[in-house]
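Components:
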Amino acid sequence: MSHGRFGRLLLRSTLGILPLLLGVTLISFSLTVHFGPDQTWEMLGRNPTPEQVASVRQQLGYDRPFVVRYADYLVRLGRFDLGYSQASGEPVLALLGRTLPVSVALLAPGFVLGIGLALALALGASWRPGGFIGRLCSATSAVGMSLSLVIVVIALQALFAVWLDWFPVRGWAVDGPASYLRHVAIPTLALIAAQLGYSLRFFHAVVQATLNDAPVRTARALGLPRRRILTRYVLRAALLPILTRIVFAMPLVLISGSLIIESHFGVPGLGRVTWEAINSGDQPVLMAVVSLSAVLFVLALGFADLLGRLVDPRIRPT
Amino acid sequence: MMPGEVRQTLRRRLPPASTAIVTAYLLTAAGVWLGWWGSDWAAIAGPGRVGPSVEHWLGTNLVGQDIFTRLLAGTARAFEIGLVVAIPSTVLGAVIGGLAGYFPNRWPDGVLMWLTGTLDAIPFYLFVIALSYALQDQPGAMQLAMIATFWTLTARLIRAETMRLRQLDFVTAARVSGVGTWRMIGRHILPHTTHILLVQSSIVFVAAIKAEVVLSFLGLGLQHSVSWGMMIAEASQEILAGHYMNFICASLALLILVLAVNHLTDRLQRRLDPRTRAETVKRMG
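Structure:
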């Protein structure tokens, strides 16, 4: 592959996500900054004079037009100048840096294993349509799509922590690999179960469609080994929809997972901080979490798009 | 697809078990709306946390409210949320998708597709959080957030279908006889997309009911009310003390309704989708 092709594709993906970046920051700004509750009284002491009120409003930028405030917000966001939490006074950036690793450690195993298991089951089910794995997959995804992550989390907690007493009921007292595994067990199982609904169904449909493609049918007729067909032909051809699905599953699974699991189990991660910020109306924290997650998600979309274009041989340098 | 064909498909027998389940839920909800049962869900009916008995069929919760009554009231709330979200978001998706698809690659299309992509790119739960923050805990923030985001897939599908339909002769014929844009989209194009709208509204209905459970659990949902999500939220604290009734009842109520609606949607989609329809007809013939 030439550098020119890579550069062109990179440019194209970057240009493609710019309008989306503009859109998500515009919505985040409108909801959490511009139309959000008036912050003036949070910043003032008792019985402020009208001059004090006016000076705080000027400091907060309430007297300036929308476009100017939006531009200011974008600059601050780009410089990671996120302000201080109103609840604890901690810099928001430090707060995110402290809690994000906990959330990643809590959720990554379940997310990755869930995707892997769903993909493996989908490949197995599509190889022999109507077989045992196929019927198992249909039943699993039908139930999985009907369950809510909330129900799965509580049921697993009741089963494994309260009734069987294998794992801790709540908390995050991690000081080594053994305690980490015990604390991460229930969230991991919950996230795997949560993905066996929509992801399994989607992967199944995509893989099945790819197996009917002419190149794959030819490869099967030639008697190539199954592993080779599945990895070299099926997975490669279906990579773009699978990648897109994984990227779209990330905010759904990770954000809802982080909010539900961390608030329910009392894990000091990003979801719990967000949940507390909702309850106390902590504007700087909410603004940072909403804006940065939306921006990160758009970047992930752009990355998946770029990767899909790179592996797609139909897009040739012109 | 012609509107008549959709009606014919609907008249053919749907899976009996799922139809019966959804009908039973709907009748339960209707009874609550008519005030026949489930209206005293807030009343303290007896001692707290007693097991099932003749008086309290499913027992009582922490404060002594009857779980069965709350379950009935929750059924009505689930239908209310599902319909309040599904109907406007499907209408919104139809109008936006129709408008974008009728002017492909012109400015309405560009602006509307940008809006669709942007709303898809904001993680849903964070959007709800931001909106309920902006609305300062006014009731309805949850429903508004769902309506504002759940129309996007419908719009994409309707846009694609409209782009196909506008090439057809009957649209050209209508255009040369002087039919205006809005009338064209509303009278001539959208009636031919009812198969998409039907399936999408049922998907959104389920998504709204499921999202309510998560949001009520997080404290972002309904206020001063009862719903399956709120029952599960209050049960999450009782589980640790070994009281499972509240949790099991609300979870099963949700699971069974969603399974049945999903099953019906799947069947409907398979029958109405032209790619799989021929096969179904062959099998039935």
